[in-house]
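job 3f2a | input accepted
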Amino acid sequence: MTSPAVSITVADAVWEQIKSSRSASDDHLSMIVCSSLPRSSLHFLFGRNLERATRIVDQGGVRKVSAAPSGRSFFLVVGESKRKEEYICFPEHHCTCYSFFYDVVNRGEHLCCKHQIAARLAEAVGEVVEVEVSDEQLATMLSKL
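job 3f2a | predicted structure (145 res):
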């Protein structure tokens, strides 16, 4: 079994490839086999969470909130439930959704939640809606966590 650290390193490399080309190819998104050796891909690493994340991105459900003048930022990612809740997301570290705490932190079954994947994917392919706020507004938003 591949260690989480190796999986995260592989995922980071794939995210960088996507970001540099500003598009996600089928090779990035699906399990591929080349020369009889499996190559890691986002689908192999994230499974159904990747499918859910792509739906969120396709529906325009990712906003990046950036503060001026500090440049600090986080993402607001819409959930898939009927309530369309927005989760505060730091793609490489944290999400306020239940799945992050239950599946990622508590049980360790996933590397990250679908909202973290959606934020990274949307930013990598340029499908994120940019929102600028003041540093004070950002602090107020984060204080409600």
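job 3f2a | The first strand starts at residue 32 and ends at 34.
job 3f2a | closed
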